[in-house]
Amino acid sequence: MWSRVTVDPVPYCWWDTRVTLSTQKWFRRLGAVVSGLCTVAVVASACGTAPDNGGTLPMQDPADVSAKVAGIIKKMSDADLAGQVLMPFAYGRSATDVSAGTAAGNKALAGVDSPAQMVEKYRLGGMILIGFGGNDPTAANQPVNNVQSPEQVRALTGGLQAAAARLPADVPLLIGMDQEFGVVTRLTTGMTVLPSAMTFGAAADPGLTEVAWRAAGLELAAVGVNVNFAPVADVLGPAGSSVIGSRSYGSDPRAAGDQVVAAVKGMRAGGVAATLKHFPGHGHTSADSHTELPVVKQSRQLLDTDDLATFKAGIKAGAPIIMSGHLDVQAVDPGVAATFSKKVLTDLLRKELGFQGVVVTDGMNMAPAMKAPPGEAAVKALLAGNDLILMPPHVGQAHQGIVDAVKAGTLPRARLVEAVGRILHLKLGFGQAAAPALSTVGTHQQDVAPLAAAAVTVLRGTCGKPLVTGPVRVTASPGRDKARNRLIEALKKSGATVVESGGSVVHLVGYGDTADDLAAGAAVTVHMDVPTLLAKSTSKVLVATYSSSDLSMDGLAAVLTGKAKPIGRSPIEVAGLPRTTCA
Q1: 562 conformational bin, left if phi > 0, alpha if psi -120 to 50, beta if neither
Q2: Helix locations, 17-125, DSSP H
Q3: CA distance 266 to 583
Q4: What sections of 31-77 are H helices per DSSP?
Q5: Cα–Cα distance between 315 and 117 in angstroms, integer?
Q6: What is the reported pTM?
Q7: Are 376 and 403 in contact (CB under 8 A)?
Q8: Average per-residue pLDDT in the chain?
Q9: Which of 333, 328, 394, 390 is nearest to 362 (CA)?
Q10: Which of 351, 418, 445, 536 has the most CB atoms lying inside 10 A of its own CB?
Q11: Which residues are catalytic?
Q12: Per-residue confidence at 27, pLDDT binned at 50, 70, 90?
């Protein structure tokens, strides 16, 4: 029996069905579940509502999916159930081949040598791949880098799925990654790199956003990643949370919500489950939740109109996952981190907003979540309403804590079954067509370039003509050599004369820079992140790209040389400057 709903046509697999022959048996048994779809009209469905995206495709009967889920859960022990709600990280760039140092890290974390052994010992439901760069505000809880190249990640995810295939539950893993792009980008080598979220906000074209995120989804699916912990749905407040910054689409809740919806649709079309974060909103805070518990001081009315607006939009669009934030939400449950708050996650998110999908914690190895031992913290998070425990600081202790709590009756088995049911619905509600070939990775620049170009914003200076004439010299604050070199190359291709001395100076600044990094006398100052620093620049021309990606530098070159009109508009206020000088 089939029901019909409106959805985007999705040609690719949510996970890689070609990893091993053993993975293919899942799909033969599960039947023709349509690619990229969320189960609807089921209490434990993977989405809040049926997505309304145009196009009509058949969906598997929700009752059929529910029956499959119930059959799987019926065979699960408490230990199986406890494993399904855990999504730890592991040391190593291979699932099975590890060095002595890597094995030592995994022993300390989980009492095993390799990532594959971790999957099998704890009967895991998922695993997150991590890594960070030098300008990453999330580096505090990223102790290892196990992403290097598309080929390496594909081999790693294949090995992890092969380990999952040997488990009694016989369901694939959720394999997640924080591929937000911008300052939080886990895999850069060989990938088509999208610009930051704020770039999308400046372009203000959800159609371009959806196309770009579909491209990203296809490439993530090709390397075996089926869950992306993006988009960031946080609305940036007037103070401009430094840990969120350009990870946000901007300060306007409605406009940011449109971007969130487009990102969810795009990733679903690419075969990847999107995640809205950090519920109920990290954009109006000043503290960093990696190191302390930020306080959300918004009134309940402002929480509804600002912070929650983007989450409501994402839920309506069918977002399958929401990440809870380590946030003290004063208007709802003062003094309690949202991660552990039933008032926030059950009463507000589930009952009031109607979200029925998977709720995942933010990293449980972040300071606010580590005030209790790993087992106790995992149980508290589940009781609050989380379904998936991300990055527990000790996998064995978290797993045993859940099992012991069920045995003692402090964690009702029904609550654990409910969480696992949602996770399995997410897994089984996505489709089984073949994943994109690995050769498609890094081939979608043409899908992203229009977005990056459309974001370039002039906040001071005239429009309709080249912003620089004659010889041009490009300078940059320390650590910006990659962006500087790309801009030089792009300027030359646009016909500009680039010199090493003299000339009109175009100066680049970016994430973390201060007034000391500005260049006195620069004809043009360009900010490649949150552009608030431009308020302190004396340059006659001020430009924002919000990102230092290669495609952003290409778009900047076209604007500087007059080959393209700057049509971007700053998605945040910059003191003393207009959103754009190009009406």
Answers
A1: left
A2: 21-30, 62-74, 78-84, 100-110, 115-122
A3: 29
A4: 62-74
A5: 36
A6: 0.88
A7: no
A8: 87
A9: 390
A10: 418
A11: 362
A12: very low
CB count within 10 Å of CB 479 equals 15
pLDDT band (50, 70, 90) for residue 138: low
- The pLDDT tens digits of the residues spanning 509-542 come to 999 999 999 999 999 999 999 999 999 999 999 9
CA–CA dist 4, 68 (Å, integer): 20
d(CA 224, CA 146): 14
Phi, then psi, of 569 in degrees rounded to 5: -140, 130
Structure tokens at 310: 């983007």
Euclidean distance between CA atoms 363 and 357, whole angstroms? 19
Kind of pairing, strands 56-60 and 2-6? antiparallel
Q: What is the token pair recorded at 507?
A: 């100066």
Q: What is the pLDDT of residue 7?
A: 27
The torsion angle over the Cα atoms of residues 139, 142, 146 and 147, rounded to 10 degrees, is -30
Q: How confident is the model at residue 65 (pLDDT cuts 50, 70, 90)?
A: confident
DSSP run (H or E) holding 449: helix 445-455
Cβ count near 583 (within 10 Å): 7
Strands (E), 292-428: 295-296, 321-324, 328-329, 358-361, 389-390
Q: What pLDDT was estimated at residue 32?
A: 26
Upstream peptide bond of 278 is cis (omega within 30 degrees of 0): yes
Which residues are CB-contacts of 405 (< 8 A; sequence separation ≥ 6)?
375, 379, 411
The structure tokens 């090709």 sit at 222
Nearest to 380 by CA among 347, 348, 405: 405
For 345, the token pair is: 């996650």
Q: Which of 77-81, 141-145, 193-197, 332-336 has the lowest mean pLDDT?
A: 141-145
Q: Which residues, 6+ apart, have CB-to-CB distance to 51 below 8 Å?
A: 5, 6, 7, 8, 38, 264, 265, 268, 317, 318
- Give the end-to-end CA distance of the chain in Å, rounded to a whole number: 54
Identity (one letter) of the amino acid at 265? K
**9 DSSP 8-state letter:** -
DSSP strand pairing (227-228 vs 273-279): parallel
Contacts of 67 (CB under 8 A, 6+ apart): none
pLDDT digits (tens, 9 = 90+) for 300-329: 999 999 999 999 999 999 999 999 999 999
* Band (246; pLDDT cuts 50, 70, 90): very high
Which residues touch 469 (CB under 8 Å, ≥6 apart)? 504
**Is 364 in contact with 374 (CB distance < 8 Å)?**
yes
Task: Concatenate the DSSP letters of all residues of 491-525 into one string.
Answer: HHHTT--B-SSSSEEEEEE-TT--GGGS-TT-SEE
pLDDT surpasses 60 at 14: no
Asked if 160 and 116 touch (Cβ cutoff 8 Å), the reply is: yes
Place of tokens 């960070």: 132
- As a residue count, the chain comes to 583
So what's the pLDDT on residue 53?
Answer: 34
